[in-house]
Design brief:
Chain A: This is Phosphoribosylformylglycinamidine synthase subunit PurQ. The complex is a heterotetramer, with one copy of chain A (about 230 residues), two copies of chain B (about 80 residues) and one copy of chain C (about 725 residues). Chain B has about 80 residues and is of the alpha+beta class. Helix content of chain B is about 35%, strand content about 35%. Chain B has a three-stranded antiparallel sheet with strand order 2-1-3. The longest helix of chain B is centred in the last third of the chain and has 16 residues. Chain B starts with a strand and ends with a strand. Among the domains of chain C are: about 240 residues, Phosphoribosyl-aminoimidazole Synthetase, Chain A, domain 2, CATH 3.90.650.10; about 170 residues, PurM-like C-terminal domain (Phosphoribosyl-aminoimidazole Synthetase, Chain A, domain 2, Alpha-Beta Complex), CATH 3.90.650. Classes of the chains: A alpha/beta (about 230), B alpha+beta (about 80), C alpha+beta (about 725). Bound molecules: adenosine-5'-diphosphate (ADP) and magnesium ion.
């Protein structure tokens, strides 16, 4: 799997992502710069977490207007696989590669804690190594993760099976009105979504921070191992 | 010429910041406060003397960058 | 204010009559306003350490693993594999009271720069915080702003905040403490220092533009705080973590080349102290052309530019032929880059602005003749040992009260606002172990880090308190299995012109020094913050509790072997160390009996060393499943914290140790650890052979903390009580 | 009655957000944009019909909560 990681000024989880991709795929990803106007040959583009352009104005707004986003858009339109995590998810929504927007957390504070995600769909490159209904741990680290979209948009996402992950509590209970289950107040507890062709995925939590047994847990591995299986053709 | 671009969340989009401020004001004893909405104000110096041009440019900048039209509305005015 | 230079203006700038006379002698004329500004900040307490230097000199600062001790921007120690840990702690107390968010945020920014200026990538932040009475609205406002500010800055720059400490006491009502610590990792062969060299080499300014921010911040932080603080209020410095992040990446990119001769961050007193220190250390002259300085505002004077404390700026001396390489890197990262001066052979600092020489000061006397005081001291009488105190409450009530009290309540509300995982190397997050652990990227090694100080002990007995702070830091690192390496300190005290404060200061340093020597734990960097004192309209002046905060690091060879608090089932609990039931100055005494008296616990550095070395050895041999030292709240709180961490309960044996039950459970005896082990017999045997006091304490299992007298508290119940304080206080 | 409280950083206080937005607009091709300053706008529903009272209350709320007077200025107006 040839993966590229986009670095914007202010990106800060590119090394985490690089480490995870390397560990799971056995191959070092290529670092891409926000000003790049062409792409090397890639199977997967990752927009990692951080504070691109300081998260000033709105999280992800300025990143979405970077030169490289034109390339990412073209890549996605050609059917390429794109993963956006945290700030990367915010950028994908700002660039309208994914619907909706990420508002300030309902509690108005940055959230850095373990989140628990339930896998909502199985037949995608991003979720194939889980079973539908599986619950796994993934650290949250964001101030603006409160997913919002119009009711019509939300219905469409659900109707097209495009909700990838939902927040649940550690025991697996889904309760959108309860902060213990849905920490940032996202509508319908949505933590991650997919594009219509299921090849662009955005999620707020950080599976890339739970891949190394030496650091305590490997809950995040299936995201990457699934991609490797799908993309090592 | 200076313009001001005001960006507010659309009617119907939940405004957690506004809600939090409303609650805090109530705790402080301001009992008669109803809905609170929070937005951003941007003041931009534009090198032009033409009001219409400045407004049109403000509108273009808002559409392209300053506002996210999925969730926000905006208004542009000349302030100086 | 009138800006005519005379003794009166000098006094307003914080220079005493004698100090101003010295300035006149050095200059041989009346200095210009800019020159007076330079003298006043360089001779401020903050920059010159004029009250503290004679005492700091007594601290041990060397060891075979120390690469750079005090005197550089941060301390540097060998951590193996050709790598070094670079770390320091620094205060931002006064700014954090005026504007808590920005004060704390810029505090984090400042200490980060001290670390990456030496060539290290920052890998962890910690913070030591002291707040006033939590029931006061002003305290809540300060907590809210400080916590948001630390998170706002650290989260954005992408350095995980992995640890720290928080205490409350009314003595901090008007003067909270915000001490921030950064740990970085560098290659030993790529450490950058600040001594300028090479006459004719260009002096380069990079980072943000200069504005009128925080002028005279250095002198302000050296002045006692009073109700006129508002009128002293300089423009508050606003931090820009985004620019700092770019500055980190750009500097590290440049540091991978061979372009840099010397580099220095612009901290307190900005351009003045960075230029003076670089030239002074290198024994060269420096000429600055202020017209070249990137400026955010129009019409700034030389005085304003030299004293501005605008954030996110660095000064470097480059090899002339490499300036283009450097410029390209900073342009890539959208940062200002300007050649603002040159090294000269004049041994003077010369400052030019708009065709005029605004300052021309000989550097040697500016440094050598900086004031140095042996301030008078008095030593308060130490409180006597506490006699027996009856138990008015019972064990269960006391335990629940302690778990809920501000000084012991869960800090999760705080650390959940700090990104503790960014970087992908965090092995033990806040709350998981006695010290935080961050893996050294690309290796199996981990760095353990902690900050510690118990101000109520220091107030009662500064000497014992200073030693205890060092011992506790050492113990916290030991409890994870790591080997403690070195210390940074942040000495927060009141007004040094008051003999009783100066006595506290000297005694605390004495205690620290003794502990550092006994534990092979040298001090490699630090910071002094004096004048932490609030004067009231009544004329009364309230100093803070003496607070010598200790930051420390250690190293563990295999990060997967590090030990935390959470214990599995089917373990035996073993107590290492001797409990005599020390209730003097304990939290039990304060929270249950509402008394703050008696002597603090005895510090036995020999026992400390022996017990700690034994515990570390047992962890290294794989005989330990969980470990937690005894500190605030005593043994029962220690055990309760272990139960809450894992959700696994335990039964404790019937105590029969010749002290009353409550003293046994809640005494804050030092040099003690609780260990969960699956090899109890072997461990107890090994301890006895090593003459380490050891007792069987109980066994793990179930989901409650159970005592033989029938008390049974579930992990859930204790967690609930423990978790309530911060959310209840802050989320109303 | 609805009031609007506009909160802006004081003259001379660094505005990192404004700086970043100015830079982004330049990259997007808006070459004639000078200084950009960013502030907050709050719209509050106040249960009163008295303009003067509403303005006075807006001022009080700004002083107590909505603005940070150490670094920010504010202005209150009635908008409806
Ligand atoms: N209490 C202390 N103990 C040991 N070293 C100290 C102490 N206080 C300051 N130092 C050392 O003195 C030097 C100057 O400190 P400081 O002025 O705070 O540095 P900076 O200018 O980088 O902020 C540093 O090397 C620092 O580590
Ligand atoms: Mg420094």
């Amino acid at each position: 799997m040839k993966a590229g990681i986009v670095v914007f000024p202010g990106t800060n989880r590119e090394r985490d992502m690089e480490q995870a991709l390397r560990l799971v795929s056995g191959k070092a990803p290529t670092m891409l710069w926000h000003r790049d106007t062409s792409l090397p040959d890639l199977d997967l583009i990752v927009l990692p977490g951080g504070f691109s352009f300081g998260d000033y104005l709105r999280s992800g707004a300025m990143g979405a207007h970077s030169p490289i986003l034109r390339e990412v858009r073209a890549f996605a339109e050609r059917g390429g696989y794109v993963l956006g995590v945290c700030n990367g998810f915010q950028i994908l929504t700002e660039a309208q590669l994914l619907p909706g927007a990420l508002l300030r957390n309902a509690g108005m504070r940055f959230l850095s804690q373990d989140g628990f995600l339930r896998v909502e769909t199985q037949d995608t490159a991003f979720t194939r190594d889980w079973a539908k209904g599986d619950v796994f741990r993934a650290p949250l680290a964001h101030g603006d993760g409160n997913y919002t979209a119009s009711e019509a948009e939300l219905d469409r996402l659900e109707g097209e099976d495009r909700v990838a992950f939902r927040y649940v509590c550690a025991q697996g209970t889904l309760d959108a009105a309860n902060r213990l289950s849905n920490p940032n107040g996202s509508q319908r507890s949505i933590a991650g979504i997919l594009s219509a062709n299921k090849r662009v995925c955005g999620l707020m939590p950080h599976p890339e921070n739970l891949v190394d047994p030496d650091l305590g847990a490997t809950d995040g591995v299936p995201l990457f191992s699934g991609l490797v299986k799908s993309l090592v053709a | 010429m200076k313009i001001r671009v005001n960006v507010m969340l659309k009617e119907g989009v939940l405004d957690p910041q506004g809600k939090a401020i409303g609650h805090a004001l109530e705790v402080l004893g301001f009992a008669n406060v109803g809905e609170v909405r929070v937005g951003k104000t941007m003041e931009l110096e534009i090198a032009t003397d033409d009001r219409e041009k400045a407004l049109a440019q403000g509108e273009a900048m808002a559409r392209e960058l300053l506002a996210n039209l999925v969730i926000e509305d905006f208004a542009v005015e000349v302030v100086g | 204010m009138s800006m005519i230079v005379n003794a009166e203006l000098a006094a307003r700038f914080g220079l005493s009559a004698e100090e101003y006379q010295k300035v006149l002698d050095i200059m041989g004329r009346v200095p210009s306003l800019t020159e007076l500004g330079i003298f006043s900040v360089m001779w401020s307490e903050h920059c010159s350490y004029k009250s503290s230097r004679v005492h700091l000199k007594t601290l041990p600062t060397t060891a075979p693993w120390v690469i750079h001790g005090p005197g550089e921007n941060a301390g540097v120690v060998d951590i193996g594999d050709g790598l070094a840990a670079v770390f320091k702690m620094e205060s931002h107390n006064h700014p954090s009271f005026i504007e808590p968010y920005q004060g704390a945020a810029t505090g984090v920014g400042g200490i980060l720069r001290d670390v990456f200026t030496m060539g290290a990538r920052p890998v962890a932040n910690l913070n030591a915080l002291r707040f006033g009475d939590p029931s006061l609205p002003v305290t809540q406002r300060v907590i809210d702003g400080v916590v948001r500010g630390i998170g706002g800055y650290g989260n954005c720059v992408g350095v995980p905040t992995v640890g720290g400490e928080i205490n409350f006491h009314p003595a901090y009502n008007g003067n909270p403490l915000v001490n921030a610590m950064t740990v970085g990792i560098a290659r030993q062969d790529r450490i950058f220092l600040s001594a300028a060299a090479g006459i004719g080499n260009p002096v380069v300014y990079v980072g943000s533009k200069t504005g009128r921010d925080g002028i005279h911040g250095a002198t302000m932080s050296s002045a006692e705080f009073d109700e006129h603080a508002a009128s002293k209020r300089p423009t508050v410095q606003v931090g820009d973590p985004f620019t700092e992040k770019l500055l980190i990446e750009a500097c590290l990119e440049l540091m991978a080349t061979d372009a840099i001769v010397a580099i220095q961050d612009m901290g307190a007193a900005g351009l003045t102290s960075s230029a003076v220190e670089m030239a002074g250390k290198g024994g060269v002259g420096i000429e600055l052309d202020l017209d070249k300085v990137p400026q955010r505002e129009t019409g700034m004077t030389a005085y304003e530019m030299m004293l501005s404390e605008s954030q996110e700026r660095m000064l470097m001396v480059l090899k002339p032929e490499r300036t283009d390489v450097a410029r390209a890197i900073f342009e890539k990262w959208d940062l200002d880059f300007a050649i603002v001066g040159v090294l000269t052979d004049t041994a003077h600092i010369t400052v030019k602005h708009l065709g005029k020489t605004e300052a021309d000061i000989p550097l040697a006397p500016l440094a050598d003749e900086a004031p140095l005081y042996h301030r008078p001291m008095t030593h308060a009488e130490k409180p006597g040992r506490l006699g027996t105190v009856a138990d008015p409450a019972g064990v269960e009530h006391a335990l629940l009260t302690l778990l809920a009290c501000p000084d012991l309540a869960s800090r999760a509300w705080v650390w959940n606002q700090y990104d503790s995982g960014v970087g992908g190397q965090t092995a033990r997050r806040p709350g998981a172990a006695d010290a935080a652990i961050v893996r050294v990227e690309g290796t199996k090694r981990g760095l353990a880090m902690t900050t510690d100080c118990t101000p109520r002990y220091c107030q009662a007995d500064p000497h014992a308190g200073g030693a205890q702070a060092v011992a506790e830091a050492w113990r916290n690192i030991t409890a994870t299995g790591a080997l403690p390496l070195a210390v940074t300190d942040n000495l927060n005290f009141g007004n040094p012109e008051k003999p009783e404060i100066m006595g506290q200061f000297a005694d605390a340093i004495k205690g620290m020094g003794e502990a550092c020597r006994a534990l092979d734990f040298p001090v490699v960097s630090g910071n002094v913050s004096l004048y932490n004192q609030t004067s009231h309209p009544s004329g009364l002046s309230q100093p803070i509790l003496p607070t010598p905060a200790i930051g420390a690091i250690g190293v563990i060879d295999d990060v997967s072997k590090a030990i935390g608090l959470g214990m599995p089932e089917h373990c035996e609990l073993v107590l290492i160390g001797e409990i005599r039931g020390e209730l003097g100055q304990s939290l039990w005494l304060r929270e249950i009996c509402h008394r703050e008296d008696g002597a603090p616990p005895v510090i036995d550095l020999h026992a400390e060393r022996r017990n700690g070395d034994f515990v570390r050895k047992m962890i290294g041999e794989g005989r330990v499943e969980a470990c937690h030292d005894i500190a605030d709240g005593g043994l029962l709180v220690t055990v309760a914290e272990m139960v809450m961490a894992s959700g696994v309960g335990c039964h404790l044996d019937k105590p029969h140790y010749g002290t009353s039950l409550h003293a046994f459970y809640f005494g804050e005896d030092q040099a003690c650890y609780v260990i969960a082990t699956k090899h109890a017999a072997a461990l107890i045997d090994a301890a006895e052979k090593a003459h380490v006091p050891v007792r069987h304490l109980g066994r793990t299992g179930g989901d409650a903390l159970v005592l033989t007298d029938g008390m049974s508290l579930s992990a859930e119940r204790m967690r609930k009580v423990n978790a309530e304080f911060f959310p209840k206080l802050m989320e109303r």
